[in-house]
Amino acid sequence: FHSNAYYYSVYSTVEQFSKFNLGSSKIESFTPRSPSNKESQTVKYGPYSNIPAKTSAKVTIHFENNSPFLTVTNLKRIVEVSHWGNIAVEEHYQLSHTGAKLKSQFSRLDFQRNPIGAPTAVKSFRTVLPASSKHVYYRDDIGNISTSNLRETDDANELEIRPRFPLFGGWQTKYYIGYSVPSYEMLSHSGQNYKLEFPFVDHSYDNLVIDEAEIRVILPEGASGFEIVYPNYEIVRGADEKNQDIFRYFWQTSPCFQR
Questions:
Q1: pLDDT tens per residue across span 192-210
Q2: CA of 59: how far to CAs of 15, 26, 89, in Å?
Q3: How far is CA 223 from CA 84, 135, 183, 217, 252, in A?
Q4: Are 57 and 4 in contact (CB under 8 A)?
Q5: pTM surpassing 0.70?
């Protein structure tokens, strides 16, 4: 970890100190700079007095961090609005463990004998779905994944996702989940005008990081004259498409946008 021992400011500072909370007590080394000290999971520089403007001093802290780092490299989310009081949501994930990479070969036998010995491995994680969600499924290209567990609470439904294999650093997996919610959860109307509101992404797991996301909305047959209001960050508007399956005679409009 590289940073500045001082708080970088365009003004002169009478007194200041910098404290780095690392989340790990296994600190291998840090750049010495008087005064500085180490306490458990914290490295502190300072206090320093009368610091001139724009002063910087590079410091490097080397510490062990076995926390798993999950990154969604690509997410495709499909929200389909039905005429019949139902909204279906399906999310396709490409998930990668971007933490420290596994150096040696993986042994399923050794892992089963001592799973605690692999603290960086991701064995499962929790996805939060709307409380009214139903018909929940969790699948991949092979088929249904039966190791998931759905727990219903008053505020939300918690889906415990357990991949077919534990994820180590540098490993990745693909899967998709889906569920349905009643239309009134996301859809409201005034006369002939309808408004669809839904979160850009669900709570896939804690400390969510997404590199790229594509959201596609399939509107009911005959929908027209729609307007899209985006979240307060940069969005790329994709080309609208027509959607049709074997159970429908008419085409459905499908707007798309990416982040």
A1: 888 888 888 888 888 888 9
A2: 19, 17, 47
A3: 14, 26, 16, 12, 8
A4: yes
A5: yes
